[in-house]
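Example record used in the benchmark description.
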Amino acid sequence: MALPTTRWSVVTRAAAADPATARRALGELCEAYWAPLHAFACRLGLDDDTARDRVQSFCLQLLQRGGVDGADRAVGRFRNYLLGAFRNFLRNEARAERSLARGGGVAPVELDEAALAGPDGQQPERLFEQRWAWALLDRARLRLRADYDTPAKQRLLARLEPALLGQDAGRSAAVARELGTTEGAVRVALHRLRQRWRELVREEVAQTVDDPAGIDDELRALRDALAGGRPARAKFDGNPGNGHSPTGS
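Model output (structure tokens):
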């Protein structure tokens, strides 16, 4: 049976046959991961402007060469491939700047090689994981809001989204009074909203794995990354108060 087509599977399997489509898919993936990469670079000690420049140059390099060097089925997940490639890119940039400095050029940008390659390497990686999780949930939430495209639906979502995101659970009666409907109708609407949310999160995760068998592992990784915390407005718990994971797993 043919495996579903995702952005990452297009890049890993179809680059040679359809380079334009693969490049477009890779561009969409790079855009989605820009913020996590930037946070990773800043944690390594680069200032904001330098980190932005590094991420921009890295993504441009990926797009120019097709971005599939070493990206075979064994890689599996786009973020694993991407972070490994970005580490190598930063090391190469640091080496090039040190060589330039020895030749009388400008002083190199200092990179915390201990954080990049040593025992403390998990710290920037952990930040990358957290930003990846937050960015993914933000994309799912934008898609969810697009589903609620009428004034009435938007009012409903505005009242229910806090409960969806783990805040103000148990407000069905108050929401029903505000909207002029029944508490039962509000509970049904929230149940459907949570179902759609889980579908969207899963779809976003699926775009970054080569094999659907890896989706559940990525959902668990997403849950673990979210355990690190986030500002309340964007924190998500798929079923507030019942101990379920944000991905419904």
